[in-house]
Amino acid sequence: QVQLVESGGGLVQAGGSLRLSCAASGSTFTINAIGWYRQAPGKQRELVAGISSGGSTNYADSVKGRFTISRDNAKNTAYLQMNSLKPEDTAVYYCNASIATMHEVFNSWGQGTQVTVSS
Fold first, then answer.
1. pLDDT of 7-64, one tens digit each?
2. For the stretch 13-50, what's the b/e string if a residue is b when 16 or more beta carbons lie within 10 angstroms of its beta carbon?
């Protein structure tokens, strides 16, 4: 079984920065695409940034130029560097990964990490 664990959330003032991490652990597996999502109270979960197995990235318009997604395949870890944070970035952030084992390919979600940006 493969698990994703996010970390790095917290409380920060507007204009500040945070770096989220998403670490995968488990038996033999390969991580394909990875996405960072967020869900604010009363709102639908939305894709913030994604990165393919080859390193191609895409971002929501609302975070372009401020957030950077990256991955370290040797560590089975993905990151989301968030700069120039705004109060509207406040949400629970989740990572999602497409994972391949010897027997199957499936999507896995982390438990989420809270990001709160104060004005």
1. 999 999 999 999 999 999 887 789 999 999 999 999 999 999 999 999 999 999 999 9
2. eeeeebebbbbbeeeebebebbbbbbeeeeeeeeebbb
Beta 91-100 vs 30-39: how paired, if at all? Answer: antiparallel
What tens digit of pLDDT does each residue of 80-101 get?
999 999 999 999 999 999 999 8
Phi/psi-derived region of residue 112, left when phi > 0, alpha when psi is between -120 and 50, beta in every other case? left
* Alpha carbon distance 31, 83 (integer Å): 26
Rounded Cα–Cα distance for residues 24 and 102 (Å): 16
Give the separation between CA 52 and CA 44, rounded to whole angstroms: 23
The per-residue pLDDT for 44 is 97
